[in-house]
Amino acid sequence: MPILDFLLPKNGKKQKVILLGSGALSIGQAGEFDYSGSQAVKALEEEGLEVIIINPNIASVQTNKGTNKKVYLYPITPFWVEKIIKIEKPVAIISSFGGQTSLNCVLALEKSGVLKKYNVKVLGTQVDALELSEDRELFAQKMKSIGVPIAKSHAVSAVKEALETAQKIGYPVITRSAFALGGLGSGLAKNETELKKLTQAALMTTPQVLIEGSLHGWKEIEYEVMRDKTGNTITICNMENFDPMGIHTGDSIVIAPCQTINNTENNTLRDAAIKIAQSMGVVGECNVQYALNPKEYGFYVIEINARLSRSSALASKATGYPIAYIAAKILIGFDLLELKNPVTGTTSAFYEPSLDYVTLKVPRWDLSKFTGVSKNLGTQMKSVGEVMAIGRNFCEVMQKALRMVNENDNGIMSNVFNNATDKELEKELLSPTNLRIFAIYESFKRGKTIEYIYEKTNIDHWFLSHILYLSKIEKGLFGFFEKNFVKQDIFTAKDVDNAFKQIPKEHLQRLKSRGFSDFQLTKIFLFACLNSKIKLSIKQVRTLSFGVRNLRKKLGIVPVVKQIDTTSSEYPTKSNYLYLTYDGIYNDISSKKNCKSIITLGSGSYRIGSSLEFDWCSVMTSDYFKHKKHDSVIINCNPETVSTDYSASDRLYFEELSYERVLDIIDIENPKGVISCMGGQNPNNLIVPLSEAKVNILGHSPKSVYGAEDREKFSAMLDKLSIDQPEWTSAVSIAEIDKFISKVGFPVLIRPSFVLSGTLMNVANDKASLDYYLSLTKDISKDYPVVISKFILDAKEIECDGIAKNGEVIVSLVSEHIENAGVHSGDATMVFPAQKIYTHTVNVIKDIVRKIVKGLNLNGPFNVQFIAKDNDVKVIECNARASRSFPFISKVSGVNLAELSCKVMNNERVKKILLDESEIAYVGVKASMFSFQRLDGADPVVGVEMASTGEVGCLGEKFDHAMLLSMEATQIKKPQKGILLSTGREKDKVKFMEVIDNLYKLAVPVYATKGTANYLEDRGYKVNIVYWNKNPRAIDIIIDGKVDFVININKNLSVDELNNNSEIRKTAVKCGCSILTNLEKVIAYLRAYDSYEELQNLEDCITL
Amino acid sequence: MEKGKNIFDKNYKKAYLELSNGLKFEGRAIGANVITSGEMVFNTGMLGYSESMTDPSYLGQILVFSFCLIGNYGIPFPKDGNFFMSKGHESSSIKTQGIIVSDAYDGCYHHDGGIAIQDWMKSQDVPGIAGIDTRYLVQIIRESGNLWGRIMPEGAKPQDKNKFEFLKNFKDDEYVDPSKYNLMPSVSTKEILYMGDSSKVISVIDCGAKWNIMRMLLERGCKVNVLPWDSDFSKINCDGWVISNGPGDPKNTQDLGERIRKYVLGSNKPILGICLGHQLLALASGAKTKRLNHGHRSHNQPVFSLPEKKAYMSSQNHRYAVEKSSIQPDWQLWFENANDDSVEGLRHKTRPFMSVQFHPEASSGPNDTSWIIDKFVQLVEKSKK
User: Fold this and answer.
1) pTM above 0.90, yes or no
2) Catalytic one of B275, B296, B299, B318
């Protein structure tokens, strides 16, 4: 009996099933759920079900329209889900593909009896088992009852209780909070003070905290389990953390399969995982995390997740086994023996993949984007994305991954610590930050032993010995070159070729198989032989590295393509899931001669500024060319994405998006063309070098891209076309900066050159702030110029997304920001169609766009950003590529910008689209999701540097509806307890009065800081006054839970002002308050409450 | 610079793998400096290399590990296990003729480990080659069905022919083909080994038994007598029989099948056949065996029981299988392979006889089917009453 009875069509009509998404991407809950959800949709549609998606994440692939699918872009809350249940009358609901968000929502719906009331069944693991997996105390009891060891731990609900418990267990202790993801509210406490701080914070957001003895230094190991309703169970993959217990798995480097455990340990843990899944009655997927004793046999189970997770997405990509797809089939009634392994097509889905390669996940952190955040890693997850490298040995995958994760050709040789003292290195080893791996490498280069590093880090010897080996290779090669070559000022590629000719072929092969890129090898040569006063740019080193590349090719040292087939070749497969390695001699696929393939370059790791939206663009592109009967090829290295689902393309190269590797793949594919404008800035950076290497880039010509990206060129063009732009300069000295400012005055926007650790973009309001921000950047010099532009206050920001063909605009669509200029466009709340711009302004904008498109001769997707003040429109920048807003604009307007781009790139005939934006039936609001709660010490203020980790897009018949929905979907919740106000400048205070009545209509106590309170009282509003530094203190009323909503507007952008308010904001975030810091956003939000009742009472919801 | 010498890697020594189909691979010599040959087989398990290499079923074979990193946790130092059956080892020595790997780790840091894999191989005169594209080699083996190979480290001597009995008459210019020999004398105990003390007495017919079979029987409170393959079964007094796993063609075991039919089946005591033991029992029952294209050697063979269709992940290592059509009327199909429908287990319709093609004793591999040993011991207990 494959499918459950009640899911079969009734009276010829398909049955409906609700699939909950995970909402906006945030730290701990990212793109992996788009991947899982998309696979699930496919699996469910195939079985004749109609899928109702509820997910406000408009940039996701799963929220694309489909024939057997309805999409609701609504907050995943019991209220909205119930409303949609009422409308759609589904027979079932699925919670396993939307992370903690959907799980919590279904638990709430079950508890409140809604599911019972509407007779909606939960598919898969049942609610009681889900609760068991979430409630740590119950879970511990269950584990004890089945004889699986679990660490000594106690659930507490008060700080005092926590202290008593810790006294019993003994310090250090670990705290964990229940019903949370990403380790929120957890940490390591070495003493009473630390414990007090941790539990206090955790208990603000969760009723229960667990205190456990610390297992610091133990191995951390995970199993992915799949179980069907008949009880057949498999473990698909195991994974081992490079970083032992103490660092959250999401922040750990992870290898799959496990490498340092033996057969006995593996099977003991595997047996326990199966036993746990059996005892909990899991139906579908679950993962089990363990701590394994590194010194003797022994383990503890840490936790289980009875749902798809980040790890399950990683395991799918690591093994090729489509976990979410199979889990979805199981949920609706299939058992594993009935299903086939989709990779082989012939063998059983009841199967544990065998790998003949290893995969390594390395997290991506963007901590330097946040002011004040602690960079130390611990039990709370801080990373915003990840990459996965595939190879045939540990050195190879480590090297690949470290080049992938920051798109840095130097990878492990990044020399982050080469100026650090031994003491500083030791500190990094002992209390790790996101840069620890580089500290390990540097320590080895300085001659430290494995034992020494092990003592400080507890990282297994096996891992360390490989890093030591890499450092020895670098040193050996360096020594060889230093000894055998004379130092020079200048080298050619031929010189590099000649130098590497002196190395025995098998050793050069070895260097490549241990993951060294041509760029890195060239770097080692240059370290040894180039006069130290000479500095070469990346471009110059790249050119020289062709010496290595040419030599290699002559010697036949080239990477080979291998398939990922789940069976280690035991069965023949046609798998299109590929990677490249130097540890092999045979290509699993033959080189393509027919020039049929179109290669789409993906976006790499998710990060702040490049996320799901670019994966959506890549997937749309690949899909398009697949349907056009081209060989659609994707290169990407991000395991969380839909684009790295092997079914998204004809061939997937899970590979580095580096210059060298892309060229390697081009050598194999001989493509018709390469698309680099759909994956965001990362692949876009490759356009110029690739085109110099004679690669056919589709879409915009490299000249156009260069013309848009080079500030000098772009600016000159604007001047020529008489298009206005804010005044700017590229300064190479303080004197030049001063000169510029004396001309234009404050405030100014400062953009330092990019350096590895990242430096912030900032707005300087006065000399003091300017000096402070400049002090944060590297020396200003010709190599590191600072771009300074006039910052225009109180200006509106407008964007125009569109497609051009041969210099003509095919379509251009205008959207506006709610926030005034000064908030990064990636953080701003975007409205489409624009509601508050005059037709005249729209016309001016479209006219400018026409000129720019013509001037740059654009041929593909573009995005132009403007600022407008009083009728003045100025151009800020133009991106000759798909932008972040493409999926949002596409879905709201109904014009698929990605598809249209493909048509242009494929040189098809396209008609101009004259869309009257005012005719669009609804208004879309795209709002940003921030993850400040996870970033200890970060000031949740938004500014010119992007800080959001995700976004939602909600629709409404009118703006207010869409605004309220999008705010709710980004965790801005209607105040229930009280509001704390600080409304900034006098002029802002005046402006705020526009919505003050709406605020008071919310009927909760209002607290305000002194200035604001006085202002309100003077105007007859009742308000509770609070102070910075005397009682009642602003911070205390937040901590005491008297307010749950904080409105905190800065007076200005001076450093002092930021610091003053920062305590309030940080505390608000810590305590889980809704927080708004931008005046325009606050006003739009409060004004929208006019329509609150109306929205809540609507009987219909909008579907895509 | 000195010609031909790798100054960056002074320990580098070449070795070649010559295959019977004419292909030749070059790699890095690991382990002992001797030339050996054997049947080329591959295993796709990712862990458990020490258990595999000591598994007597691999006798006469060159084992290719498809997984790319072998030796990571070292080799458990032969410590005194129960009756000297050390953990991580399945017999007292390496049984493979040699191994082929992509990468062999030269170290040992596991808390249970004592020695690096290369040192272990050296100490046991077993050669290997690293740096081989094992994925490619697996594909070659899979496609060619029958393939033999020779490991040739530069400047190495031929293998000592006294190492195993079957090698005695072997000529160096041939490829060792284990299917040509009766391998029982090379792997079976020479005299009866008595282990444990209990009223439940199990006789294990040692066709190259993995130690874990004995360990598991002992753990379940049995007294275990390990019998030489050629002992006179008619004289054995016991409560149950285990016919063990082992190397080679079940038909190339002289009169073993016949003696099993007569004395073991004839004794009417519970019987459990494992792997080769399963094939021998099938032959004794009148069924036939056949040679598979490349066999099953992995930790992830999906099998399911009939009629319940309950599925298990199993560890396997075999080339021969029972022909489904030849199953005798008083026997029934017990387990089937979910990938290729091959016979994975048989049981007698009325008598306490059963056999499985896979390894319920695992080691290495998953323990999903260890319940079969439980079931067997329960049958023994029941039949004693």
Assistant:
1) yes
2) B275
